[in-house]
């Protein structure tokens, strides 16, 4: 009897297992049998997986539905945390568990290529319809790797109630700013730029730096960056360093003003100027500030070039659906409708020229940022860039706080970076 | 993680050696217990639950095996079969297998979440896994070859269809001169005489060739993407290939892989060979990206101690880590014990309100508190300087020694409620007679505390203090959210600073905030941390045994 009961139990366990298995697998069978008959090769699953962030997901959904209606391929959106998505992508792709497509800022491209996780794509004629800087940003070692969809850069926001006229250069900005501070007790800061008391912010400071003719890496003729030529510590850079120290002493730059504090101060009308990107404009508009978007002022006499950040779709090198993924990118996402939908949710100017023209005609702010972006340089995508930020920001921070000799601090940072890259 | 996880199946029908519960147990008393003949409703539910759960487990295992057979993963299959069989055997049996029923869930979770992680970190420590050495050699070869394909500048595009003859794929396209051409990877393009064109003038069919429909193409995407059709007999003319099965372009290979010699050769005749470090390199040291993951022996450990960029800071970081962990435990325990003693006083009023207030910091997530404190400690706009210190600009987080103090202070704020709870519990379990007896013998409050309470308290709290030490040794949240390990050391190019603990240093190396990611080195350092914490814990637990002898 004992034996009987135990074998009965085992039999029931087996039965449950089989029931569960058939219940789960029956739907798969029905779906895959169709393709396995027609194709000799093992059928790849007809699903494109795409990693994107919460904000962009709703914009991609209708496009994905259209794609499914046309081709029968499901596009599965997976919402990922954007601050760590590049790390996940690099570690997941080699295991075969990564997505087919990822949405990512272009400055991660170098690391993707270095780790062999992205596949080049041929944009063909689409390339001519995209902004040149955008294509340049997704090009690495001569190969195009992504489909860009937006470009972003910083500009100088001016509170028109405090300063009615456009400044000619950065000295003029400071003069006008200080005049505003003296004229109105409510105005506390002549100029705002979001920094951090623990690290500087070379990204926001870069237009000021380039106006001295200083850059971080030398650019080749085709616009790509040469990792072997670090130009950060050169003479122009040292001139910029000296200026940073002066600005720190004059109180134009203040390391204790974080991005949040700067935004809040500008919203309260405590400063006439704020150097920031399009992402802060909605909040400023909501705060009821009358603002103008001015070209970036030159401090050192040469054009002030901001860094351009380009967001793009990239295809995984281990994707088993490259044909479908390429089709989705070039035929469905490089369209006016798709790029405008992405603009509507993200607020960043589209990379597709026709879509940009349409959006810019309707929205003066977009046009203002976009025009400034024409002078910009893509943020370097080379993996060596990861080694630069900490020392670069640290040196700026030190100078803003008025510590050390500018040339010494600056060359030391550059030497540090140089030894890290090697 | 609880290792006492049990399932409903543990209340299995009979427990030999113990009288069965319930009204019938009286009649069983004094006899050898036998399996009960009756099935009570409770055991029935348990039995059904057990069978369903086991059935589901088996189903998952069977499904996993089917998947793994497809991937040729034979070793994992054997492991799955053995593990599943063992679990079934244990739970379907009775009697001597009873201990197994309790041990299996705990052991399984221990294996998955602890042993596997430790072993895998150990394995990674002996590899060069990191940026540039991310995948397998095959992946690297494929990536280099693909990146070496360059579209011939200003070459025309060909509208194409994918066609098939005798199982071999080919491309049917329209050449720029208007001719319709077809070819396969073996046969260069030839002109087709009598093609079918669609309304847009794109060739869609040719005699003798079957045109693949979109769904056929999508079923064979890998083959389509890998298909290269030479333009002519001369390989120098390049070849056609397509990414989207509708437009093809002319490409040339800038670099070619030779399987026989395992080398790459580029257009200038430079040969890149496997240099044994997980990458292809030319004779003059030019390296092709990406490389691949290989085992490197003790290289990572050697680097940790011999590379001057790492070894100097490593020593300082280790000393600070010990200081931080010991001081954190000491300060939190002292404050927690003090408050517990005070609030445990019999004449104290409103004790409950105070206790709630005291444990409040415990309710906030540590990383959130870290961020809030970082804002409070902003030199110019922070609450502490602006309001409490009347506008003084104390660099709480940017001066090396003040930053260390701030980190300890915030950790004290975060950590004392735990110690308070532990000490309150321990104090309340101390027998009151001991204190009374001591008082009768003439001992003052300090002596009572020093000679009676504290030693007794330490018996129960010492293991928790050791656990607290291990926790603070790896207290990532407080450091990373408050100071990020800064202010930076200025004698190393790594992004390491005065308040970095070993664990934040490992994180920075692993995730590349100071340059390239290096999981190998980070794993090697993790193993060193493990050894340090294990050694300290073993020694400390030995010492606490002597405390127990007080009882």
UniProtKB/TrEMBL annotation, chain A:
CDD domains (UniProt xref): PBP2_Maltose_binding_like (cd13586)
Highest taxon above the source species: Bacteria
Family: Belongs to the bacterial solute-binding protein 1 family.
GO cellular component: ATP-binding cassette (ABC) transporter complex, substrate-binding subunit-containing
PROSITE patterns for this protein: PROKAR_LIPOPROTEIN
Gene Ontology biological process terms from the UniProt entry: maltodextrin transmembrane transport; maltose transport
GO molecular function annotation: carbohydrate transmembrane transporter activity; maltose binding
Record keywords: Signal, Sugar transport, Transport
Entry protein name: Carbohydrate ABC transporter substrate-binding protein (CUT1 family)
SUPFAM superfamilies: Periplasmic binding protein-like II (SSF53850)
Cited InterPro entries: Maltose/Cyclodextrin-bd, SBP
Organismal lineage: Bacteria, Bacillati, Actinomycetota, Actinomycetes, Micrococcales
Signal peptide: 1-22
From TrEMBL, chain B:
The entry's keywords: Cell membrane, Membrane, Sugar transport, Transmembrane, Transmembrane helix, Transport
Purpose: Part of the ABC transporter complex MalEFGK involved in maltose/maltodextrin import. Probably responsible for the translocation of the substrate across the membrane.
Residues that span the membrane, as ranges: 44-67, 73-91, 103-126, 319-344, 356-376, 401-421, 454-473, 519-541
Gene Ontology CC: maltose transport complex
PANTHER family linked to this entry: MALTOSE/MALTODEXTRIN TRANSPORT SYSTEM PERMEASE PROTEIN MALF, MALTOSE_MALTODEXTRIN TRANSPORT SYSTEM PERMEASE PROTEIN MALF
Subcellular location: Cell membrane
Membrane-topology annotation of the record: Multi-pass membrane protein
InterPro entries found in the cross-reference section: MalF_N (IPR035277), MetI-like (IPR000515), MetI-like_sf (IPR035906), TM_PBP2_N (IPR032550)
Pfam families noted in UniProt: BPD_transp_1, TM_PBP2_N
Residues spanning the signal sequence: none
Disordered: annotated span: 1-38
Membership in a protein family: Belongs to the binding-protein-dependent transport system permease family. MalFG subfamily.
Name of the protein this chain belongs to: Maltose/maltodextrin transport system permease protein
Main subcellular localisation: membrane
One GO MF term: ABC-type maltose transporter activity
GO BP, sorted A to Z: maltodextrin transmembrane transport
């Amino acid at each position: 009897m004992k034996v009987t009961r135990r074998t009965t139990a085992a039999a029931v366990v087996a039965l449950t297992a089989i029931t569960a298995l058939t219940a789960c697998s029956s739907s798969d069978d029905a779906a895959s049998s169709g393709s396995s008959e027609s194709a000799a090769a093992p059928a790849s699953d007809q699903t494109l997986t795409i990693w994107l962030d919460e904000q962009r997901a709703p914009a991609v959904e209708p496009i994905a539905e259209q794609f499914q209606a046309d081709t029968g391929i499901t596009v599965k959106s997976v919402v990922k945390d954007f601050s760590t998505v590049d790390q996940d992508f690099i570690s997941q792709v080699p295991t075969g568990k990564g997505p087919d497509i990822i949405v990512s800022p272009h400055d991660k491209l170098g690391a993707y290529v270095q780790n062999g996780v992205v596949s080049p794509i041929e944009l063909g004629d689409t390339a001519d319809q995209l902004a040149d800087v955008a294509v340049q940003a997704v090009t690495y070692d001569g190969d195009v790797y992504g489909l860009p969809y937006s470009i972003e850069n910083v500009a100088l926001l001016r509170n028109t109630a405090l300063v009615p006229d456009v400044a000619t250069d950065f000295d003029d900005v400071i003069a006008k700013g200080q005049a505003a501070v003296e004229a109105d007790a409510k105005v506390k800061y002549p100029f705002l730029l979001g920094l951090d008391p623990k690290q500087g912010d070379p990204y926001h400071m870069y237009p000021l730096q380039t106006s001295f003719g200083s850059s971080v890496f030398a650019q080749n003729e085709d616009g790509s960056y040469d990792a072997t030529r670090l130009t950060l510590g050169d003479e122009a850079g040292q001139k910029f360093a000296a200026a940073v120290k002066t600005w720190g002493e004059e109180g134009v730059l203040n390391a204790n003003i974080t991005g949040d504090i700067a935004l809040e101060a500008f919203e309260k009308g405590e400063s006439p100027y704020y150097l920031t990107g399009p992402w802060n404009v909605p909040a400023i508009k909501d705060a009821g500030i009358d603002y103008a978007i001015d070209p970036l002022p030159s401090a050192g006499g040469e054009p002030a070039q901001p860094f351009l950040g380009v967001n793009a779709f990239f295809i995984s090198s281990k994707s088993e659906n490259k044909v479908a993924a390429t089709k989705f990118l070039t035929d469905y996402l490089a369209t006016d409708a798709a790029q405008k939908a992405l603009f509507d949710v993200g607020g960043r100017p589209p990379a597709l020229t026709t879509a940009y023209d349409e959006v810019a005609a309707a929205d003066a702010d977009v046009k203002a940022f976009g025009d400034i972006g024409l002078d910009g340089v893509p943020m370097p995508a080379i993996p060596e860039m990861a080694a630069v930020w900490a020392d670069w920001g640290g040196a700026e921070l030190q100078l803003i706080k008025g510590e050390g000799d500018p040339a010494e601090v600056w060359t030391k940072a550059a030497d540090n970076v140089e030894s890290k890259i090697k | 993680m609880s290792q006492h996880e049990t399932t409903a199946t543990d209340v299995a029908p009979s427990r030999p050696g113990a009288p069965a519960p319930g009204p019938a147990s009286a009649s069983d008393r004094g006899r050898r217990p036998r399996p009960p003949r009756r099935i009570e409703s409770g055991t029935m539910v348990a039995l059904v639950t057990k069978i369903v759960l086991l059935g589901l487990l088996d189903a998952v295992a069977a499904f996993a095996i089917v998947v793994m057979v497809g991937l040729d993963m034979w070793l994992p299959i054997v492991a799955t079969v053995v593990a599943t069989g063992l679990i079934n055997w244990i739970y379907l049996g009775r009697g001597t297998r009873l201990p197994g029923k309790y041990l299996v869930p705990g052991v399984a979770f221990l294996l998955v979440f602890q042993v596997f992680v430790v072993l895998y970190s150990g394995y990674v420590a002996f590899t060069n896994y990191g940026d540039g050495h991310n995948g397998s050699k095959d992946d690297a070869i494929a990536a280099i070859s693909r990146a070496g394909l360059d579209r011939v500048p200003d070459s025309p595009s060909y509208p194409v269809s994918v066609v098939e003859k005798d199982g071999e794929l080919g491309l049917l396209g329209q050449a720029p001169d208007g001719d319709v051409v077809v070819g396969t990877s073996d046969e260069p393009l030839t002109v087709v005489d009598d093609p079918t064109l669609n309304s847009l003038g794109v060739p869609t069919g040719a005699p003798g060739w079957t045109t693949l429909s979109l769904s056929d193409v999508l079923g064979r995407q890998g083959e389509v993407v890998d298909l290269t059709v030479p333009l002519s007999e001369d390989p120098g003319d390049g070849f056609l290939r397509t990414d989207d099965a509708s437009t093809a372009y002319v490409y040339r290979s800038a670099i070619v892989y030779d399987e026989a010699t395992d080398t790459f050769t580029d257009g200038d005749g430079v040969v890149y060979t496997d240099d044994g470090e997980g990458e292809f390199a030319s004779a003059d040291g030019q390296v092709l990206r990406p490389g691949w993951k290989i085992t490197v022996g003790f290289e990572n450990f050697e680097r940790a101690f011999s590379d001057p960029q790492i070894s100097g800071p490593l020593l300082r970081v280790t000393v600070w880590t010990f200081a931080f962990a010991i001081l954190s435990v000491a300060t939190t325990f002292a404050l927690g014990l003090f408050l517990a003693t005070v609030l445990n006083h019999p004449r104290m009023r409103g004790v409950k309100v105070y206790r709630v207030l005291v444990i409040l910091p415990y309710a906030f997530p540590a990383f959130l508190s870290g961020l809030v404190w970082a804002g409070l400690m902003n030199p110019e706009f922070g609450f502490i300087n602006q309001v409490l210190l009347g506008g003084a600009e104390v660099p709480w987080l940017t001066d090396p020694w003040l930053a260390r103090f701030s980190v300890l202070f915030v950790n004290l704020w975060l950590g004392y409620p735990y110690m308070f709870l532990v000490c309150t519990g321990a104090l309340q379990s101390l027998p009151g007679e001991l204190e009374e007896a001591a008082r009768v013998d003439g001992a003052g409050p300090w002596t009572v505390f020093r000679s009676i309470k504290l030693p007794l308290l330490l018996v129960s709290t010492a293991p928790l203090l050791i656990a607290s030490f291990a926790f603070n040794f790896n207290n990532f949240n407080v450091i990373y959210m408050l100071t990020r390990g800064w202010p930076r050391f200025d004698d190393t190019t790594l992004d390491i600073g005065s308040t970095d603990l070993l664990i934040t240093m490992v994180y920075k190396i692993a995730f590349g905030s100071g340059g390239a990611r290096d999981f190998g080195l980070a794993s090697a350092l993790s193993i060193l941390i493990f050894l340090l914490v294990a050694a300290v814990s073993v020694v400390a637990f030995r010492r606490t045994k002597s405390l127990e002898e007080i009882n």
